[in-house]
Amino acid sequence: MGVFSGLEGSLEKYIEGFFKDRFKGRVQPAEIAKKLAREMRDRRRVSVNRIYVPNKFTVHLNASDYDHIAAIASAFSGELQEYVNQKAREKKYTLAGPPAVDFVREELEETGFIKIESGFSEAPPEDEPAEADAGVLEHTQLFRLAKDITVVEKTPAVYARLKVEAGPEKGRIINLSKASQVIGRHAGCDIVLNDFSVSRRQARLEWVQGRFAITDLGSTNGTWVNGSRIVSKVLEPGDEVALGTTVCAFKVD
Questions:
Q1: Separation between Cα atoms, residue 84 and residue 19, nearest integer Å
Q2: What average pLDDT does the structure give for the chain?
Q3: Which residues of 144-168 are buried (b: 16+ CB within 10 A; e: fewer)?
Q4: What architecture does CATH give domain 11-119?
Q5: How confident is the model over 159-176, as a mean pLDDT?
Q6: Is the whole-model pTM more than 0.85?
Q7: Residue 129 phi/psi, 5° resolution?
Q8: Per-residue pLDDT for 101 more than 50?
Q9: Reduced to 3 states, what is the DSSP secondary structure of residue 75?
Q10: Which ranges of the chain does DSSP label H, i.e. alpha helix?
Q11: pLDDT (mean) for 10-22
């Protein structure tokens, strides 16, 4: 178990022992952890179903404080990244991607200086899928298509569409006119969404035995139908499909 794997209270108690002596008179690890948690809280972005928070942090330290931790900076960063994950699960936040904490040396005379910069990083490449966050999946249901269902490669026999109800492109109508379409942020997708929280290749929509099915392509933040995170699921008229901060209603005529 890492130094920051507990909640904030137990973290502080731990530091009062071993770390407090080691960092005596200098910036304390608990101070940095608290500032990271505060940065997540202050920069959170609330969507329809989730609360997004930054995942990339740069910690600026006074030169003396930085030099004091330089030898263990890599391990220290790992502990803080673990703490960020724990805090996100505790607060039910959704990280924009895998957490990263880096340190920067500042040429200042004042000791005890801490400045935190944060950002929302882009999703990792699709050939390097992020591990599913246990805190997110714990209360969700996973759906898979039956093995005997196959995709029929022909033009859909119905007029189906996604109507964007929330997100950067609210009001947009997305017509599903092909038997197979990839939806994502990348310009090469069949359906391109202008949403930073959507993966480059988020999901695939397929015409399956007279119905449309949606399959997640290993996206960072997951594909959700009616509030449940899915792997693959046949869509029914009126279903709510959430991709990042974009929420769509599935409609069929």
A1: 19
A2: 76
A3: ebeeeeeeeeeebeeebbbebbbbe
A4: 2-Layer Sandwich (3.30)
A5: 92
A6: no
A7: -60, 140
A8: yes
A9: helix
A10: 8-14, 20-22, 29-42, 63-69, 73-91, 134-137
A11: 40
